[in-house]
Amino acid sequence: KRIFKDSMLEFEIKLLERERFLISPKFFQLIFFTYESLFYMGLFFNLFQSSQDGALEYLLYMALVLLIMFNHCFELRTEYPQLFLLGAMKEKILLFRFSGTGMLPLYKSKILLMYTLMIIPTMFLLIFTVYMISVNITYIFGLVIIFITFKLVPIVQMWATTYLIKTDYITYMDVGTTEEEELINKIQAIPRKILVLPLLYFLYFLLFMKIPVQVMFYIFSAYVIFYILISVVFIIVSKKYAVNNIKKFDSKWLRL
User: Fold this and answer.
1) Could you tell me which of 65, 150, 153, 232 has the fewest CB atoms within 10 Å of its CB?
2) Which of 65, 78, 50, 38 is nearest to 200 (CA)?
């Protein structure tokens, strides 16, 4: 099983080479950081420098990490739907159906590919976090946040794709451009709204009201615990829903 997974990932990486006409225009964003992530870095760096509150600095750091990692994975799926949408290649779907394995190995290989493409931006964030830990040991919580988010964000994007596996594209370049696939964007936004938006709203709220340092630290601690617990629950629950969605797709007769 492990060898099969590795061979599937190898196939997906070879597909990147074959589809280089899609990848090359935005190679930097695919491998390193999106332009939106670079904007977040500049914005939060200035906010960080102007802050005198330790707990606020921790929240700013956490918001930056979450925005970069969630956004990078979202951009991977939306910019390269031919690589990540399960129904993009009819021939591959037919192969899996006739082999009797179903679509689940394909789904897992797409997640592994996302993990692979997330390695470099995650390593940069880890290096930055290690530096922050050398300055302030409290930032060690960042290692936990990065690890959980790295595990979470590819699952968020690929879990959403299992709700709509579309195969009747007219041309290969139509993949990801149809109105029906807006459903995927709405579904993948649910975890982000639960996990990330409350933090952003709270930081915005601080522009208009000052909260005591002690209270800020309690809020920071509560949010870290909340984020970790909800992320773990989502990882477990989404796997169940993704498997069920794929089984439903496999059980239906589709005109491919």
Assistant:
1) 232
2) 65
Place of tokens 């007769």: 253
Q: Pick from 127, 154, 167: which is nearest to 73 by CA?
A: 154
Two tokens at 194?
């639960």
pLDDT in tens, 167-218: 665 455 555 556 667 788 888 899 999 999 999 999 888 878 888 888 888 9
- DSSP assignment of 92-144 equals HHHHHHHHTS-SHHHHHHHHHHHHHHHHHHHHHHHHHHHHHHHH-GGGGHHHH
pLDDT for the residue 238: 92
Reading the block at residue 199, the tokens are: 């933090």
pLDDT band at 54 (very low <50, low <70, confident <90, very high): confident
Residue 255: the pLDDT is 45
pLDDT of residue 156: 93
Classified as helix, coil or strand, 93 is helix
Residues 6+ apart with CB under 8 A from 129: 65, 139, 142, 143, 146
Distances (CA, A) of 134 to 9, 34, 53: 36, 27, 18
- The pTM assigned to this predicted structure is 0.84
DSSP state of 196: T
| CB of 212 closer than 8 Å to CB of 133 | no
CA 236 to CA 230: how far, in whole Å? 10
Q: pLDDT value at position 174?
A: 54
Alpha-carbon gap, residue 237 to 231, rounded angstroms = 10
Mean pLDDT on 7-13: 65
